[in-house]
Design goal:
The protein has 333 residues and is α/β, with parallel strands linked by helices. The chain folds into two domains: 224 residues, Spore Coat Polysaccharide Biosynthesis Protein SpsA, Chain A, CATH 3.90.550.10; 70 residues. Helix content is 46%, strand content 11%. It has nine helices and seven strands; from the N terminus they run βαβαβαβαβαβαβααα. Strands 3-2-1-4-6-5-7 form a seven-stranded mixed β-sheet, with helices on both faces. Helix 2 links the parallel strand 2 and strand 3. Helix 5 packs parallel to helix 7.
Length: 333
């Protein structure tokens, strides 16, 4: 009872599982998808919530979701103001999830909810992330499969986490390895890399992939360019997140050495071969490279200040603890 004597609303207990599905113009698929999810959850016998994130759909998807929410108390619907893209929709799902295990899925009927069980079984073997692998993918060869194969190999090489299928949305995560992840651009596909950086154990197992029956795919080759840019960001963060001066300093040192070589050679040409400075571009190159090297060094120092401000202002550590063992575990400070 609150001070006015009215009953406080009941706080719902957090479920075991939180499924979240970005939805964009999937009106024809939603009802069947939810039916499959309900069947899979019934077999699992675990408490769950199902979060649908409507990403600014222009068809009747939101109305369909409202009807499902009215008939199923496990369902939460989040309606975004406009179409922000899959990464933003997944981030909204992560923020809303309350379960100890988080499970993203696509809403287009190509992921099979029946596979959730085998992913959870693998998770219980001691892993923190289990990623689905669409081993027998039902997509077009040249526009979807081949670009995906190439991208997955590049991502694995750069990110250091070797998965066959980063693009498969069906994954399971323990809450602690994903709850602090902040996503931008098209980086939802790189969540296993972020988790691995935090010390998570990552596994991958084959899952079903069903052909699309209704609607059309929202993905295309145009996304490849975005993925490439995000890969550059991922590589930079992986190698230099806490030491940006290393990368800026390397470029600065390279520019400085080029400046020195150009200056020395221009001097040799002048005093040994009697070639005037105005007859060769080397003096200009030396001056420009020197200026660039100074800029890179100063940018690196500025980046170092920003990194330290970021970590220290938020009291954010540069490490993550998996668990504490021993006499000091429960000791209060």
């Amino acid at each position: 009872m609150n001070p006015e004597g009215t009953t406080e609303p009941e706080v719902r207990k957090a479920p075991d599982l939180s499924l979240f599905l970005p939805v964009f113009n999937e009106e024809e698929n939603i009802a069947e998808m939810h039916s499959k999810i309900s069947g899979a959850l019934k077999v699992l016998g675990r408490t769950a919530e199902v979060i649908y994130v409507d990403d600014g759909s222009s068809d009747g998807s939101l109305n369909q979701l409202k009807q499902i929410a009215a008939s199923d108390e496990r369902v939460v619907v989040i309606s975004l103001r406009r179409n922000y893209g899959q990464t933003a929709a997944m981030s909204a799902g992560i923020d809303a999830a309350r379960g100890s295990i988080l499970i993203p899925m696509d809403a287009d009927l190509q992921n099979d909810p029946a596979d959730i069980g085998i992913l959870l079984e693998k998770l219980e073997e001691g892993y923190d992330v289990v990623s689905g692998w669409r081993k027998h993918r039902k997509d077009k060869l040249f526009t979807r499969k081949i670009p995906s194969w190439i991208a997955n190999r590049i991502i694995s090489a750069i990110g250091g986490v070797h998965l066959h299928d980063y693009g498969c949305s069906l994954k399971v995560y323990r809450r602690e390895v994903i709850q602090d992840v902040r996503l931008y651009g098209e980086m939802h596909r790189f969540i296993p890399i972020y988790a691995a950086w935090a010390g998570a154990r990552v596994a991958e197992i084959p899952v079903n992939h069903l052909p699309r029956v209704h609607g059309r795919s929202k993905y295309g080759i145009s996304r490849t360019v975005k993925v490439v840019f995000d890969l550059i960001t991922i590589k930079f963060l992986a190698s230099y997140q806490t030491k940006p001066l290393y990368v800026f300093g390397s470029f600065g040192l390279t520019a400085f050495l080029l400046s020195m070589v150009a200056g020395i050679w221009a001097t040799v040409l002048k005093y040994v071969y009697d070639v005037s400075f105005i007859l060769t571009p080397l003096p200009v190159i030396a001056i420009v490279m020197l200026a660039i090297s100074i800029q890179f060094f100063l940018m690196g120092l500025l980046a170092e200040l920003l990194v330290r401000t970021y970590h220290e202002s938020q009291d954010k550590t540069i490490y993550a603890v998996r668990e504490r063992i021993g006499a000091n575990v429960n000791r209060e400070s």
